Amino acid sequence: MSGCRPPALPDAWDLPVVDVERRVGPDVYRQWPTVIRLLAENVSRNSDAATRDKALEDMAQWLRAGTSDAEIPYVPGRLLMHDTTSTPALVDIAAMRDAVAARGGDPTALSPRLPVEVSVDHSLAVESFGRRDSAVVNLAHDMRRNAERYRFLSWASKTMDTVHINPPGTGIMHTINLEQLATVVTVETVDGIDHAVPDMMLGTDSHTLMINGLGVLGWGIGGLEAETVMFGMPTTLRIPEVVGVRLTGTLSAGVLATDLALVVTHRLREMGVTGEFVEFFGPGVSALTVGQRAVIANMAPEYGATTGFFPVDARTVDYLADTGRTRQHCDLVESVTRRLGLWFDPAAVPRFTRTIEIDLDAVVPSVAGPRRPQDLVPVTELPATFRAEGPSRCDDDTEMPAFPIAIASITSCTNTSDPRLLVAAGLVARRARERGMRVPPYVKTSLAPGSPSAASVLERAGLVDDLSAVGFDIVGFGCATCIGNSGPLPAEIATVAEARTRKPVAVLSGNRNFPGRVHPDLELGLLMSPPMVIAFALAGDAAIDPTSEPVGVDADGRSVMLADLWPAPEEIDAVTDSARRPSDVVDDFVSASRNPAWDALDVPNEPLFPWDPSSTALRRPPFADDDFAHSMLGDYDAHPLLVLADDITTDHISPAGAIHADSPTGQYLVERGEKPGDLNVYASRRGNWEAMLRGGFQNKNVRNALAPDAVPAHTVHAPTREVVPLAEAARRYADDGDSVVIVAGERYGMGSSRDWAAKLVRLLGVRAVLARSFERIHRSNLIGVGVLPLLIPADVDGGLQDLRSGDRLHIVGTTDAVERGTVAIVVDRVDGTEVRFDARVAAETDLDRRLLRRGGVIPSILDEQLAR
After folding, report:
1. Are 455 and 588 a contacting pair, CB within 8 Å?
2. Residue pLDDT, tens place only, 10-30
3. How far apart are the first and last CA of the chain?
4. Which segment of 50-64, 419-433, 673-687, 836-850 scores lowest on mean pLDDT?
5. For residue 9, what pLDDT is reported?
6. Can you give the pLDDT at residue 12?
7. Is 788 left (phi over 0), alpha (psi -120 to 50) or beta?
């Protein structure tokens, strides 16, 4: 692969297409939602005749009820990854290469068959801020701290022709996808003939589906599922249920795409969306730009959906032109999508499984939090929201509010990929600067756009100095604060947080605010639009109503209201339009790609990676070893290792943020020579299984009902009644030949796609996880490591949340039971009582069941490779 930008499409207007409408008839085709039409095209193009015909018949039958148990294959044309999801996947491949070579096979045969684009965007930390050279300083820290891991990624790209790495500083993967990689329509050879086909892809990040805002079908998968896709296995799925979101009206002045995205998130979580495809339709869609649509699509994991899809229309073509795609390309996209019946009709009402209507006129400025992205709060209700958090002591001489803003960050692809939102933030900063306003010294400010081209837009708009004046200098081009790489807290905040005299709050334009997500010492967080982040940074207080209370005072001591700072929509549009240049995207990306430190890495060039036994960043993982490469199914008695409540996120299970020196992972690293003040973040250690295992369940908000008063990541070892670390308890049970399981509540595994949330569970010897419900990607990752996901029926009293140490679960989790789809469970309590029920296996496809039989993805790949 020669670079990030896709090749130009051929100059041909008569390319054939895969005409599904002709095959199934317009009465069927035009009733399908666009996402079903796209899936039908993918199946028709990539399957043999028998598979195609059965799939199309099943999809036609889907129209009767809007649901189906039938399975279909999906074959993406490309795969997108970032550095902290690609590292464990590529480390697995390196370990599998070792295993293949040890058994006499050819290790070079283990290379991805799909194009894999990797963006190094998840490791940038906000060390320097509030100064013009922050981006340069932070990039230097990034390269220094992560050089060993980046050397490994470069090795992978050298030894695997299909892997291409975009170095640090080039932007966030989803923004790169939106601005450069996505073609909407591309060309593939079908039966030996070039066809014009829809661009379809997958990515190892839950926010991959930001690309749905451009009309490209794609969604997020775990790194383990990606490994199956890399090696030629189609991903299989049930024909999805599709929730239609009908949009009407237009957004009012002062209301931004972020506000709408938070409303959509709230409404769909309230509706109970869990894994369905979501598609937007109705006349309100046409009122939204691709930038606005991308914000809403990006939040789909937060509203529980697999997709947040917007079909192609004139707005799509405009965006392609605005980001430097050729006129020929734009014309081809319109021509082909019209021919395929994929062009958006605002009057059409396809058949959906369920529908909901959202009136854009009714959306008001809002934030979400303070702990979950689905908890919508109109800004007028913030004082009441924080009053409900209880009073802070405030019994010191510090002039700081009870809920001070600790971090104010314009961050993440979610809201920085739309230049309009950044311009709006810059205009608020301009008015604040004109009034002589300053951000309180205890607020850590940062601006981390998703694309280097954002800097050109802000510079051309004359807003860089304005943003700098209120502390929002660009700190780099990466995920930064959104992913938990927020760097150290200001000293004043760290002091009051430790003393518990205040409850510091993070405000960010990102997509998640789970406790500890942004920073391990911050429990409270608010999601909001970029200009609102500036307003709250100026106020320094999270518990205000900015519509009726001042957000600060000017240089003359006069109160300044939000309305005094907020720009009109016409001004935002005028400044944005005057500042954008289609050539910026490519030119700025090419300039950012010139990274001398990256080019200077000493990269090995051999088919087997030379593992360094002293490395704290990369350790050969055990998953390809015989001790792990086997099925976990069976008929067994098990102890509960953890009993957890609702909403346990992948951040709770496997953190991404800062590693404290006194944590088990920190102690492990310091013992091996790392400096206590330079331990980096957990995301940087995902190539070291020992570091990741020690970080499991360390979040202070995770309460284990077996040991409710114990420190995090501890449990009761039932035979001895001792409270010990999880890993110690797991080792003792394994030494005694005892099995263990985890029990959880609703929405287990919500949040990021990280496969380590499943891998560390497997390392603990867990054979099954029983939960009320699972989030989609984490469920797939559990299956990918061979751990059986089981759904606790609603009629089981308390959902097993009252299990205690000494209780045992007899689980008939055999291959036959998995094939039937139900597992018999008997709970024998220490008090002599017994509970019997059948749990449903949360395996949706034949591939899921095959992976469970084989013990997961890695044993499956090894078996197939060695059988060649």
Report:
1. yes
2. 554 578 999 999 999 999 999
3. 26
4. 673-687
5. 55
6. 46
7. beta
The answer to whether the beta carbons of residues 865 and 110 sit under 8 Å apart is: yes
Q: Are 827 and 792 in contact (CB under 8 A)?
A: no
Mean of per-residue pLDDT scores for the chain = 94
What are φ and ψ of residue 238, in 5° steps? -65, 145
Say if CB 542 and CB 382 are below 8 A apart: yes
Q: Check: CB of residue 172 under 8 Å from CB of residue 477.
A: yes
Instruction: Kindly state the tokens that stand for 202.
Output: 């997958």
Residue 1 above 50 pLDDT? no
**Is 726 in contact with 714 (CB distance < 8 Å)?**
yes
Q: Amino acid letter at 625?
A: D
> What is the pLDDT, as a whole number, of residue 10?
52
Q: What's the distance, CA 661 to chain centroid?
A: 27
Three-state SS letters, 123-158:
CCCCCCCCCCCHHHHHHHHHHHHHHHHHHHHHHHHH
pTM above threshold 0.85: yes
Angle between helices 419-434 and 290-298 (to 10 degrees): 100
By three-state DSSP, how is residue 185 classified? strand
What would the pLDDT profile of 236-269 be if each residue is shown by its tens digit?
Answer: 899 999 999 999 999 999 999 999 999 999 999 9
260 and 360 Cβ atoms separated by less than 8 Å: yes
CA-based nearest residue to 691, from 755, 758, 756: 756
What does the alpha-carbon distance between residue 60 and residue 40 come to, in Å, rounded to a whole number? 10
Backbone angles phi, psi at 723, to 5 degrees: -90, 115
CA distance 211 to 290: 10
Closest CA to 257 of 365, 376, 177, 174: 365
Q: Are 501 and 395 in contact (CB under 8 A)?
A: yes
As a whole number of angstroms, the distance between CA 56 and CA 70 comes to 11
Distance CA 402, CA 393 (A): 8
C-alpha closest to that of 454 among 445, 439, 469, 467? 467
Of 319, 333, 313, which Cα lies nearest the Cα of 179?
319
Bridge partner residues of 682 (DSSP): none
Closest to 162 measured CA to CA, from 117, 98, 223: 117
How many angstroms separate the most distant Cα atoms in the chain?
79
Q: Cβ(261)–Cβ(295) under 8 Å?
A: yes
> What's the rounded Cα separation, in Å, for the pair 575 and 38?
37
Beta-bridge partner residues of 245: 280, 356
Whether 778 contacts 711, CB under 8 Å = no
Round to whole Å and give the CA distance between 778 and 755.
Answer: 7
- 399 or 622: which leads in pLDDT: 622
Residue 443 tokens, joined: 């607020």
> How far is residue 88 CA from its own chain's centroid?
16
- Please tell me what DSSP assigns to residue 793: P
CA dihedral of 861, 864, 867, 868, whole degrees rounded to 10: -100
What pLDDT digit, counting tens, does each position of 195-207 carry? 999 999 999 998 9
The count of other CB atoms within 10 Å of the CB of residue 671 is 9
